Amino acid sequence: MLASHMPDDGGVELRYHLTEQDYLAMMEARTRWRTGRIGRMVLWAAVVLNVGVGAWLLLGALLTATPLAVEHFLNLGLATLIVAWLALYLPWLRRRNFRHMKLADKPVHLVADREAVKLRIGDDDSRTAWREFERGHRTAEHFFFWLNPAIALIVPLRAFPDEALCERFWRLAQEGVPTTNG
Questions:
Q1: Which of 27, 117, 146, 175 has the fewest CB neighbours in a 10 Å radius?
Q2: Residue 178: helix, strand or coil by DSSP?
Q3: Backbone angles phi, psi at 127, to 5 degrees
Q4: Sequence-ordered list of residues with C-beta below 8 angstroms from that of 67, at least 6 positions apart, any chain
Q5: Contact predicate 135/181, CB 8 Å
Q6: What is the rounded average pLDDT for all residues in the chain?
Q7: CA 91 to CA 95: how far, in whole Å?
Q8: What's the order of all strands across the beta sheet hosting 179-181?
Q9: Gap between the Cα atoms of 152 and 161, Å rounded
Q10: Within a 10 A sphere around the Cβ of 79, how many other Cβ atoms?
């Protein structure tokens, strides 16, 4: 945390650095928002079903001494690809993407008031009205304000020196953005 305070106009001013962990938390929140609990349950049920059917076909062929066919390996191969994609490739890709982004390891200066959020990340400035965000989300460690399903403003709770300033910021956001906790 660099510095934080409450400007005289009732807004909030914060200075912080985004970390790879902040970005990964945003990507996890995005996944939860877009796929939902049922979507993840269906995906993992399909993976387990593929493994089970593939193992059953393979075991049946081995026990009956029948020649192995392509379909014996198809379900196992598909399940292996899905697990590799989810458990290995996506986490690697997310870390790689963060390291190549302009915001990686740069200071963030955020000023929020009732109308908008102003950001300075490194040498880049932006201003976004609260009403431009589709949704705001608060977790145990972050605020995420979604401009669209792929892009969010990330505000780590560690940027706030105390709970009062954190709550003030959340109230400002709630005036202009549909918000959720969790």
A1: 175
A2: coil
A3: -140, 130
A4: 61
A5: no
A6: 83
A7: 6
A8: 151-156, 142-148, 135-138, 179-181
A9: 22
A10: 20
Any idea which residue has 């490739």 for tokens?
89
Measured distance CA(91)–CA(28) in Å, rounded: 10
Question: Which range has the worst mean pLDDT, 29-33, 80-84, 122-126, 158-162?
Answer: 29-33
User: Shortest CA distance to 146 belongs to which of 131, 138, 134?
Assistant: 134
Please classify residue 47 by burial: count the beta carbons closer than 10 Å to its beta carbon, then call 0-12 exposed, 13-18 middle and 19+ buried: middle
Structure confidence by residue, pLDDT tens digits, 74-100: 777 887 888 888 788 877 877 777 677
By percentage, how much of the chain surpasses pLDDT 70? 88
Please say whether the beta carbons of 113 and 11 come within 8 A. Answer: yes
Region of poorest pLDDT, from 59-63, 102-106, 111-115, 153-157: 102-106
Q: How far apart are CA 92 and CA 88, in angstroms?
A: 6
CA distance 33 to 91: 17
The model's pTM is: 0.70
| Neighbouring residues of 87: CB distance < 8 A, sequence distance ≥ 6 | none
The strands making up 124-129's β-sheet, listed across from edge to edge, are 3-5, 12-17, 107-112, 116-121, 124-129
